[in-house]
Design brief:
141 residues, alpha+beta, Endonuclease I-creI, 4-stranded antiparallel beta sheet, 48% helix, globular
Length: 141
């Protein structure tokens, strides 16, 4: 991937994107939440979203509106390891969401350690990373 393409992808995430940490509720034999990262971009221009999908993989969703005066919304997303790799690649070029990216990468690195039983401290630290990204993503901050 060319540097200018990574810089463009970073600018797209800075302007039209989101970087988040989600938690799945405990289920089955897992008695603790499963934390994962996600990156997404939403735009009314399908060319941009299709370029992101072709260049970095992930998923594309289309929200079609019934109101003819509204444009369709195209959404691209990555999660977990794909999201981590993408964030590592664009991190040097992010201007606004670099803290969210660093925090998400840290969370992903913690999750990928493959530990079967998590300590209370580890669960607390993962939760704190999720909260940190939520605060950074809060409107007006």
């Amino acid at each position: 991937m060319e540097v200018y393409e990574l810089a463009y992808a970073a600018a797209t995430v800075d302007c039209d994107g989101t970087i988040g940490i989600r938690a799945q509720k405990p289920r089955g034999t897992r008695n603790y939440p499963y934390y994962y990262i996600m990156v997404g971009v939403a735009n009314t221009n399908s060319v941009l979203i299709n370029w992101l999908h072709k260049s970095f993989g992930g998923s594309v969703y289309i929200k079609e509106y019934r109101n003819d005066s509204w444009k369709n919304l195209y959404m691209w997303s990555l999660s977990t390891q794909q999201a981590r790799e993408f964030l590592v690649d664009i991190l040097p070029y992010l201007k606004l969401k670099w803290e969210q990216a660093e925090t998400a990468i840290e969370l992903c690195d913690r999750v990928s350690r493959g530990v079967s039983k998590l300590s209370d401290l580890e669960l607390s630290e993962r939760s704190a990373l999720k909260e940190a990204v939520m605060i950074l993503n809060k409107r007006g901050v």
